[in-house]
Specification:
The chain is of the alpha+beta class and 242 residues long. It has two domains: 3-111, Electron Transport, Fmn-binding Protein, Chain A (Pnp Oxidase, Chain A), CATH 2.30.110; 118-241, predicted glycosyltransferase like domains (Thrombin, subunit H, Beta Barrel). The protein is built from two helices and 16 strands. A hairpin with a 4-residue loop joins strand 2 and strand 3 (35-47). The two termini are 36 Å apart. The relative contact order is 0.12.
Length: 242
């Protein structure tokens, strides 16, 4: 089972300083208004006796802010160790299109078990759009939380630039599994490059993408496909060993 710990007191301020410094992506939810979006901590400020954190103005937010000061705002984010953090707070102020939100009193951290990672079937592709260009990655492995891949069209040992490393957020990422005739596709609402490294054998840059937003239907499709390919792999290995 997952273990949950509570962060409180001065540790809260330290945590938010790290979020600001690292530009960590947060998911914002307004359950009363059926609204969610990704954002990040831009600044921290003491006002009166309270400390507030500043977030950027998310797309579509103006339509939801009529009584934002009274709304309960939920956030969650994931750290590099696969720990899931979540907290709720109340008391936002909108000043010159800046959104200041009161620091929560408690942040919960849940250490999840590592997600099962599947060696992707040969021919699995991932498509991202950047500056009106469409890039295709050959997927090496994949889980519900992310994937590892290399740019298609790069030959073994060819020099290359890590052109996606500073791209920030990708939206509407598409994963296509073989065989193509079955139209096995999954759409990820948003993702980011979490890690970039050069494979010492191939000299290719390998991109580790973290999936930030994926709806329930697409999550189920991806889950079913991962376990389908896992079963096929085990059946093939069993036939080889017989």
């Amino acid at each position: 089972m997952a273990q949950t710990e509570k962060i409180a007191g001065q540790q809260i301020l330290g945590l938010f300083e790290k979020l600001r410094h690292h530009g960590t992506i947060l998911r914002l939810h307004l359950s009363q208004k059926d609204y969610s979006h990704v954002t990040r901590v831009l600044d921290l400020r003491k006002r009166r006796k309270d400390t507030f954190f500043l977030i950027d103005y998310p797309a579509g937010f103006p339509e939801t802010n009529a009584d934002i000061e009274m709304c309960s705002i939920d956030f969650d984010f994931t750290d590099k160790d696969n720990g899931n953090y979540f907290f709720s707070t109340r008391g936002a102020e909108i000043i010159d299109r800046n959104i200041w939100i009161k620091l929560p009193q408690i942040v919960k951290r849940e250490q999840r078990r590592k997600l099962y990672r599947l060696t992707a079937p040969s021919g699995t592709k991932l498509h991202v759009n950047l500056h009106s260009n469409r890039y295709e990655l050959k997927v090496i492995d994949i889980s519900l939380g992310g994937s590892l891949g290399v740019l298609a069209g790069i030959q073994h040992g060819d020099p290359q630039d890590p052109i996606l490393s500073y791209a920030g957020l990708f939206e509407d990422v598409e994963i296509v599994f073989p065989p193509e005739k079955e139209n096995l596709r999954v759409t990820i609402r948003s993702a980011k490059v979490k890690r970039l490294g050069e494979n010492p054998l191939t000299k290719q840059h390998e991109y580790a993408l973290q999936f930030l937003e994926i709806d329930q239907i697409q999550t189920k499709i991806l889950t079913d496909l991962i376990y389908r390919f896992q079963r096929e792999f085990l059946r093939n290995r069993l036939r080889i060993n017989l």
